[in-house]
Specification:
By secondary structure, this protein is mainly beta. The chain has four helices and 14 strands. The protein is globular.
């Protein structure tokens, strides 16, 4: 964590948030129509993260979301539910998890290092596919990644009942497979998709892993996805079990100190 914090302080201490827009709740059918594949993932009773449909039966999210706080073990699949496009208590589609895989190189007890962020990725396989006619999945961004404008759609604390979208925020820099953003995310936003908009409909460039403060400014971090997603698909086929967590994380619900979600770290 210290090395990442020092690097970010040197690189981002004076970074400007030019052209970054405010968060907006997608509170109408029209506003939410393009983002139905982004949903809320509930774990047990009260804890949640954000996630995105990338295939009719696959949801992309953050690896640390799959660990339950009370016992520091993985949530049982039958306690994981995905609500596609959830808004005001209604979802376009609701499914339970059939399988779930956190990346085996993610260290659930480790600090917020660049390497750990790079592997903070998970896939959830649903018990039944969701019709692509009702909910078109998003594709993974596979083109070159450069600093510049992106957008984020997320759920979070005090906005758990509807998606919120930040139409434009900035990818500020990249350290290996880890990226740093000035996007406005909060507890419960772990797993939120960060979209590029280079070729028409958005493609998922990263998912939100956590947050930290750099020179008094909140920054969010995520990771490059193509290789990680391919590895996770192989894990699901083989059902390789990730390591058991021995750390408590912070999220919405289930007690603010004993849950799963986006992390705050001060360098």
């Amino acid at each position: 964590m210290r090395l990442l914090a020092i690097f970010l302080f040197l690189v981002l201490g004076t970074a400007a948030a030019a052209q970054t827009t405010s968060l907006r709740t997608l509170d109408t059918d029209y506003a939410a129509a393009s983002w139905k594949a982004v949903g809320r993932i509930d774990f047990g009773r009260g804890a949640f993260c954000s996630g995105t449909l990338i295939a009719p039966d696959l949801v992309l999210t953050a690896a640390h979301c799959l660990y339950q706080p009370a016992s520091n073990r993985l949530w049982p699949e039958d306690t994981i539910r995905f609500y596609a496009g959830l808004r005001d208590g209604e979802a376009v589609a609701t499914r339970t998890a059939k399988k779930a895989a956190a990346h085996t190189d993610f260290d659930p007890v480790g600090p917020l290092t660049a390497r750990n962020v790079a592997y903070d990725v998970a896939l959830i396989q649903l018990d039944e596919p969701i019709s692509t006619f009702d909910v078109p999945p998003f594709y993974i961004h596979t083109d070159r990644i450069t600093p510049g404008p992106v957008s984020v759609v997320s759920y979070g604390r005090d906005r758990a009942q509807a998606q919120s979208r930040q139409k434009q925020c900035q990818m500020l820099t990249r350290l290996g497979d880890t990226m740093v953003f000035d996007c406005d995310v909060t507890f419960g936003s772990s797993g939120s998709p960060v979209f590029s908009h280079l070729n028409g409909r958005g493609r998922i460039m990263a998912v939100i892993s956590g947050m930290m403060e750099v020179d008094g400014q909140k920054r969010s971090v995520g990771m490059a996805l193509p290789e990680r997603v391919a590895e996770l698909k192989r894990q699901l086929r083989l059902q390789v079990a990730p390591p058991t967590a021995q750390v408590r994380r912070i999220t919405v619900g289930g007690g603010a100190r004993n849950s799963t979600g986006a992390k705050f770290v001060r360098p």
